[in-house]
């Protein structure tokens, strides 16, 4: 019934460009609008425009990813050394204490060793104390690494929780002690 009023079917026709009143656009945009309508006027131009925009987007995204990643790959700056990664000589006066301190994250390890070089074999006490308040006796009661005084020993301290720890050597003798300390801070976090 309504089919008699339709014209006979014809081959596919290109879509006409969208009609827009160029006179309503600001004067600087009119040439751009004309170029846009020209680019979309035929199927071949529309396909070229579509493929060109895909290429621009792909190259742009690759350029953006490269710009973000390249500085990280080529960065040769070393991270700041941890204060607990040391290899140094310590001099301890008679009946005195010296040491190193630094922040240790939970489950991280401080490993290494120490050796008394002069006088050879002189025993020193080694203690690891967490940060806290109180006098020396109260702090020493919190010793996290109790060991008998010795002239040389390996050190492997694993922090149970994140805190600021002091690694202390005490000289109980009446002579000055020269101590060589070699410690490394080993992070449990995966590399970045």
Q: Can you offer a commentary on this structure?
A:
By secondary structure, the chain is an alpha+beta fold. It contains three helices and seven strands; from the N terminus they run ααββββαβββ. The strands form two sheets. The protein has a four-stranded antiparallel beta sheet with strand order 1-7-3-5, with no helix packed on it. The protein is rod-shaped. The protein starts with 29 loop residues before the first helix and ends in a 6-residue tail after the last strand. The mean pLDDT is 85.
Strand order of the largest sheet: 1-7-3-5
Query: Oligomerization state of this entry?
Result: single chain
Low-confidence stretches: none
Query: Radius of gyration from the CA trace?
Result: 38 Å
> β content, as a range?
25-35%
